[in-house]
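Re: that chain you flagged

S.,

Sorry for the slow reply, it's been a week of failed gels. I finally had a moment to sit down with the sequence you sent. For the record, here it is as I used it:
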Amino acid sequence: MRGRREFLQLLGVGGAVFASGLGAACERMVRKPADDFYFVQLSDTHWGYKGPANPDSEVTLPLAVERVNALPRRPDFVVFTGDLTHTTDDGAERRARMARFQQLAAGIRAPVLRFIPGEHDASLDHGQAFEERFGPTRWSFDHKGVHFVALDNVSDPEGAVGEAQRDWLHKDLKAVGGDVPVVVFTHRPLFDLYPQWDWATKDGAQVVEVLSQRRNLTVFYGHIHQENHHLTGHIAHHAARSLIFPLPPPGSQPKRAPVPWDPQLPGRGLGFRGLTERDGLASAEEIPLSPQERIAAARAEAQR
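Prediction finished late last night. Pasting the structure tokens below so you have them in one place:
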């Protein structure tokens, strides 16, 4: 018989699963059904984007909502880890995009939806429009024996968490029992994945130092538009796919630019993450957005 910690480590929440991807983790175990949980992470929807990297930009978010609602298990909660909307200098347009995004996301059949901003949502106005629509840019909550924390590393245009928020994080975690597993959500990576492409957090090392005081902690983030798994000490960091367009592997080309859209493979590289336990089988997986024929049908429907 295995305990709560082993189960969460199996899911990658304790850092046990990272190198081969979350989808490889599964194992039979005996646990109480009341301890079961399931959540979904979506990221980088960039609502409002129009460009050649995704001519179907008005289709992919509604399809993601449909795809989540079609999952075999209803999520306990859903988290969007930033860049809900695409950047704009027009404050009124920014708010309009957030309102439309919220309207579409509300179609997800889950009891709780949670949001953190990306730099496209927050860096131009220090998170003001985001807070008006979605509330605080940082938060924490407990769910079935796990402590969840969201950090804002985008409202500061320089991409820092900041001293005040690090102090808040330290106090938040100090109030949580040492054996309680912790899951942290951010937008940018907290480690220096590739700073030349803004794939880092200015004070990320100081944040990781605070997080490292926990024995059982994992970070889920977005921003880089691809699956990526990395360790800083004992902490596992897992990046999510985007729902708008994929980006190339870090440093694989001179400039950061979206992977060219392929009309034969719409939706290539797009998807989201689900973590679940069912009938004693624990698993975590990356879920593709949709088969290409479904995207083509949705495109035709949207154009009518």
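What I noticed first: The first strand starts at residue 26 and ends at 28.

Talk soon,
D.
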